[in-house]
Amino acid sequence: MTPSGIYTHPDGLAFCFCVGVMVGHWLAAFEGPELHLIPGGWSNRKVVVPIAVVQFGPYRWVRHPIYSSTMLLFATYFLALRAPLSLLFVVAVCLMYYTQKAKMEEDLMIETFGEKYLEYMGKVRYKLIPLVY
């Protein structure tokens, strides 16, 4: 805090915030455009029957990168706001919600693609957070 009472962020924290926001937005933007490469893979309908197992782009590291990028954006915003309790709450809620949603999607993918999706799950072990979960 400066003598005038204005709080300034350490340079490292400001840099991490900028990197986190850029990476989160990049991942979110990177997922959508690739889905048009798969016939029927992009639709405005709420439920889309999958016709291919996507294994390129961020899908090489996590099975649900859209959820991962959303959580990264939330986490980065709350870190920037210096709101650790809000961060913990939102991450916990996101993990509970996205875990259930991912389970439903994975059941649909297994039903649709069977062994091919199970093989993909074996290759890409992490659902939401690379190297963690």
UniProtKB/TrEMBL annotation:
It is found in: Endomembrane system. InterPro entries: Phopholipid_MeTrfase (IPR007318). Keywords: Lipid biosynthesis, Lipid metabolism, Membrane, Phospholipid biosynthesis, Phospholipid metabolism, Transmembrane, Transmembrane helix. It comes from the Eukaryota. The chain crosses the membrane at residues 12-30, 71-98. It is a multi-pass membrane protein. GO terms for molecular function: transferase activity. GO terms for cellular component: endomembrane system. The keyword Cytoplasm does not apply. Its main location: membrane. GO terms for biological process: phospholipid biosynthetic process. PANTHER family: PROTEIN C-TERMINAL S-ISOPRENYLCYSTEINE CARBOXYL O-METHYLTRANSFERASE (PTHR12714:SF11), PROTEIN-S ISOPRENYLCYSTEINE O-METHYLTRANSFERASE (PTHR12714). This is Protein-S-isoprenylcysteine O-methyltransferase. It comes from Salix viminalis. The lineage of its organism: Eukaryota, Viridiplantae, Streptophyta, Embryophyta, Tracheophyta.
